[in-house]
Amino acid sequence: MPISKGASYMGAVGIALSGHALVLENLLGRWHGRWLDRDGSALSEWFEVSGTTIPDFHFLMDGSLVMRSVVQHEYKLRFEDAKASASDLPEWLQQRSVNQFSVVRFGKGYASWGDAGPCPGKLEVLATSGKSCGCLEVPSLSRLASIGRDGSLLVPRQDKTCKYDLYPQLLR
After folding, report:
1. Is the Cα dihedral 131, 135, 138, 142 positive or negative?
2. Arithmetic mean of pLDDT, 47-72
3. Half-sphere exposure of 16 (CA within 13 A, CB side)
4. Average pLDDT of span 47-66
């Protein structure tokens, strides 16, 4: 469906838990966002979005989206569902803004891993409120690790052999 016209290109699309889409377009070097309903109708006017290069979105369990810069690997802004402006990240995510994170336990929590926060180099489990539930030591954990929908942790080996360590349903 056409979203806009002119000298712009679509840069990113994020889908909130409601099903609403936040689209970002770059018009002459400046990012603009607009919320759309499932049928493509506008839920907001276009609004300016600053502070990113090559944006990417991730959903939070409160229904909002957070945006990170793919280049800088850092989460920077939060967007409440259908609201035509950005706000600061929740405090728990500010402390872990350069970490990877994933929704776990069927939406009842998050997992965070990276060099920031109270568990650098470890896997941290958090409640949806952002309260830390503890840290897990995982060998060879890196930002390339991923967590499946069933809570399984997949960690690529660092010896570049295309082998992975699988922790089935670790975070179920």
Report:
1. positive
2. 90
3. 22
4. 91
